Amino acid sequence: KRQILVWDSEVKGFALRVTPAGVKSYILNYRNGEGRERRLTIGKHGSPWTCEQARTRAIELLRDVAAGSDPLDAKAEAKAAMTVTQLCNAYLAACDKGLILGKGNRSKKESTLATDRGRIERHILPLLGTRKVKDLTTPDVTRFMRDVTAGKTAATVKTKLYGKAVVTGGAGTATRTVGLLGGILNYAVSEGVIGVNPAHGVKKPASGRREVRLTPEQYRQFGAALELAADRGENPLTLAAARLLALTGCRRGEIDLLKWSEVDEPGSCFRLSDSKEGASVRPVGSPAFAVLHTLERYDGCPWVLPNRARSNYFQGLRNAWDRIAEAAGMPDLTPHGLRHGFASVAADLGCSESTIAAMLGHAGGTVTSRYIHHLDSFLIAAADRVARQIHGYMTGAAADNEP
Fold first, then answer.
1. Among candidates 278, 285, 287, which has minimal Cα distance to 372?
2. CA end-to-end span of the chain, whole Å?
3. 179 near 197, Cβ under 8 Å?
4. Distances (CA, A) of 213 to 2, 217, 234, 283
5. How far apart are CA 220 and CA 92, in angstroms?
6. Distances from the Cα of 340 to the Cαs of 27, 334, 359, in angstroms?
7. How far is Cα 15 from Cα 27, in angstroms, rounded to an integer?
8. How far is Cα 361 from Cα 358, in angstroms, rounded to an integer?
9. Can you give the pLDDT of all 403 residues of the chain as single tens digits?
10. Where do the H-state alpha helices sit in 150-293?
11. Fewer CB within a 10 Å sphere, N or C end of the chain?
């Protein structure tokens, strides 16, 4: 019901503090040169602070006090002098320890962290890295956003031995990067580095996201492009991945990482162990399972779409996509556009918004939460109807269920 302090028998003023919630932290009580009693938190119990490490640190701090310095003042001065670069490094270190929570109050995924690191290194640090965090103002963040939008950080960056990343600007990049910066500055507030987040209240530009709606003719063009790619010797796994995206409404990463253990054909669904929204069950129509039947399974290889060595998942769709989209006469079409297309066809067939949300695995909807463990016949039938409609469009065959 109240916090307790367990005092050390060896080092005066050193203690373990335990909160009612069970959080354990090492603290040090001391009197500074002016005789004022002060309390400093050394750190939470666990990595990196074991009891012995915290006790050693307490002894070092007491030596500093005896020499005339005040550790709390020194700590405050260090925070006041912290640059944006140092703050970003501290933020990423906290993310690596699972201390920064993302969607659904879960630790950020490694893929998300990789994206965050890219935005930090390529946008935030070049423009703000040397600035002191305490000196940042809302106009500074607004100027940063405008600079990213205008392409001030645009560049071609070498990523691997023969790889490169083309860094662009634009409204979408600016919006997402300012969102990340706001999260980093929230962390600074929680750590006592600053009192107010200067990113609050900054109006972000529209990201330029377009509603994608494929017509039956465009689906036929896409299907014809896949047929042409097959005739030209395109990797069959690339074509299978593209068809699965169109027929399921899944995200590209969900198809890339799909494992045979997650494919439940008797249950007419994919039981994804880890999606953008966490564990997710997706109803899947029979045309998608027909695509899966064309794929070979390999002993010891869990991936539905494996790489050549069968040691990891297949990553060839990324490189082939532009060729396929260009051949379909839709160079601006993205894999995510097929997800929007799936939703549009579902709406045309009379599916409700909650049903579409459940089919796409959107979080936050009551339907999604109800179907985590069980899919009823209505939802399965809806997913099958949408998949059959899209398959009919892509092949040019007359669908049995015209809207």
1. 278
2. 62
3. no
4. 58, 11, 26, 21
5. 45
6. 53, 10, 12
7. 5
8. 5
9. 899 999 999 999 999 999 999 999 999 999 988 889 999 999 999 877 999 999 999 999 999 999 988 888 877 777 778 899 999 999 999 998 888 877 666 778 787 899 999 999 999 999 999 999 999 999 999 999 999 999 998 876 666 544 556 677 788 889 999 999 999 999 999 988 898 999 998 988 765 555 568 999 999 999 999 999 999 999 999 999 999 999 999 999 999 999 999 999 999 999 998 777 678 899 999 999 999 999 999 999 999 999 999 999 998 898 899 999 999 999 989 999 999 999 999 999 999 998 999 899 886 544 444 444 456 788 999 999 999 999 999 998 854 444 4
10. 171-190, 216-231, 236-248, 252-256, 286-293
11. N
Torsion over CA: 183, 188, 192, 196 (sign): negative
Please name the amino acid found at residue 172: G
In terms of C-beta density within 10 A (0-12 exposed, 13-18 middle, 19 or more buried), how is residue 233 classed? Answer: exposed
Specify the residue for token string 């009612």.
20
What ranges in 233-371 are assigned the alpha helix state H? Answer: 236-248, 252-256, 286-293, 317-327, 335-348, 353-360, 366-370
Predicted TM-score (pTM) of the model is 0.61
Phi, psi (rounded to 5 degrees) for 263: -90, 115
- Indicate the residue type of 331: P
Single-letter code of the amino acid located at 166: V
Name the DSSP class of 349.
T
Give me the sheet containing 269-275, strands edge to edge: 263-264, 269-275, 278-283
CA distances (Å), origin 299, targets 111, 310, 393: 27, 10, 35
Q: Can you say whether the dihedral through the CA atoms of 29, 31, 32, 34 is positive or negative? A: positive
Tell me, what amino acid is at 239? L
Helix H or strand E segment including 71? helix 71-80
**Which residue type is seen at 181?**
L
- Reading the block at residue 233, the tokens are 């010797």
C-beta neighbour count of 313 within 10 angstroms? 19
Q: Encoding tokens for residue 226?
A: 């896949």
Q: Which of 253, 246, 245 is nearest to 219 (CA)?
A: 246
Structure tokens at 334: 């993205």
Instruction: Round to whole Å and give the CA distance between 129 and 120.
Output: 9
Instruction: Write down how long the chain is.
Output: 403
121 CA to centre of own chain: 17
DSSP type of residue 363 = S
